[in-house]
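The protein record now logged underneath.
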Amino acid sequence: MPSNSDQDGNSSSSGWQVLTVEPSEENERLDAFLVRHFSNFSRVKLQRAIASENVLLDEKKAKSSTRLRTGQLVRFLPPEPEAEGSIPEDIPLDILFEDEHLVAINKPPAMVVHPAKGHWSGTLTAGLAFHFNQLSTVGGPTRPGIVHRLDRDTSGVILVAKTDQAHHALSAQFQDRVVAKEYLAIVSPAPDRDRDVIDKPIGAHPYQREKKAIREGHSTSRNAYSQYEVLERFAGFATVLVKPKTGRTHQIRVHLGHIGCPVLCDRLYSGRAALRLDELTRKSSNKQNDDAVLLDRQALHALRISFAHPESGEPMEISAPLASDIERTINALQAHRPI
């Protein structure tokens, strides 16, 4: 039997498991080989690991169907175990609305909505599990109450269902596109038009798995529609109100980037990761705090959501006050970059 070791015969300290193909395993498929040696993972999960290049054959990427040869090295980075459920954590939550059917939370930036690889703690669902005795079970144990989601660095209003009935009713409204969502974004540079529609399909990025892209006619593409209106213009910047009519992953960020006005400090879709005060003042200064960081995450905030109450059917509109970093950045733009 092969041993879990590196090429020097020592256990891998990086988490990679290394196996050597034995003569008895000659011509075996790569995925079948892994299933036999790592029976605690399903074939589907192992095939995904191969596709995501967490399996290397002689230090090169391979396919699930690749036939093995004696003496080859198979390196495998096991995926992190999935949490069975959210472990309650005493995380402060900014509650905008609550009744026996639903809760609306003003999500802060830098908070992941539900557990995922690399983010098993500090999530919104961990805070929800601590503060509420009852949440819907429709989304499964790792997504209690979660009807829709916001990106990690997007702040603002998010709805949470307390009961399965409320969850189904709200999900139907999202699916039928009768939920009205409004986002505030700071973009750089400012759009040429005061208002416009962006009607461009979004699909998988051609070579970066973590990104999305405008893809016409691609198998992964889905229609995406956004309306935007410029609220205030500054020298090189603008605040924009965006109303997405569809809910594609990264939709607003991709659409605004497509028209040449990416969301400010969007690490994935713009060339800037942070904004300092001295970048706006346009002059060097020895004053303390002139180099203070105003913003170090994407300037996108879920400002308002309108929907029908899942039980009464009454129209509801819930707004979330701006996060302090976005408000601070707008104040600095008004002070140092007026037109």
Notes: The helical segments are 30-37, 43-51, 124-131, 164-175, 251-258, 277-281, 324-336.
